[in-house]
């Protein structure tokens, strides 16, 4: 892809805007908003500070645009990968539904550890999700987090025999998602603790443990 036209200057339009976003996401992911300088961001895209002002109104606007793009793209991929959950007919055996959930989470974990770009995108999301407030947090919640939770709540509800909007269903769903996200953020810690170089050679054990944990989380009776 050409970053500049042959006659000089910058290509106007969606292509250049998207290029700046694509180059900025991993930088924001590694360094955060404050740690990513404008000079660093424009150098990665082969642009100038004026380009960020032109397309985004400044660094803060670029950060919001990155959040929108990242949330939308991540949701599209997750939703596509989880389409098999939509095909589970009413009355499906709970163990089958739990296996379907485990298959999805296992595939996501493998992709994350195999894909450096996705790992950097996960860092961007993690930084903002920890902030708990602000316009970028709202963007990621509305365009990604809420959609993911609403996607899995009907499956969790079906397993435990409750409606998808029941407070217990929603809380269990949130805890499952948090458990899986925690595994992502501790991936390298887990590898070192186990003395493994990667997860690929140990997927059978990993999948078995994940299924066991999911069954325990979804089958236990509440002690209240």
UniProtKB/TrEMBL annotation:
PANTHER family: HTH-TYPE TRANSCRIPTIONAL REGULATOR BETI, HTH-TYPE TRANSCRIPTIONAL REGULATOR RUTR
Gene Ontology MF term list: DNA-binding transcription factor activity; transcription cis-regulatory region binding
Native source organism of the sequence: Sphingobium boeckii
DNA-binding region: 37-56
Cleavable signal peptide: none
InterPro entries assigned: Homeodomain-like_sf (IPR009057), HTH-type_TetR-like_transc_reg (IPR050109), HTH_TetR (IPR001647), Tet_transcr_reg_TetR-rel_C_sf (IPR036271), Tscrpt_reg_YbiH_C (IPR015292)
UniProt cross-references to SUPFAM superfamilies, sorted A to Z: Homeodomain-like, Tetracyclin repressor-like, C-terminal domain
All residue ranges annotated as the HTH tetR-type domain in the record: 14-74
Protein's recorded name: AcrR family transcriptional regulator
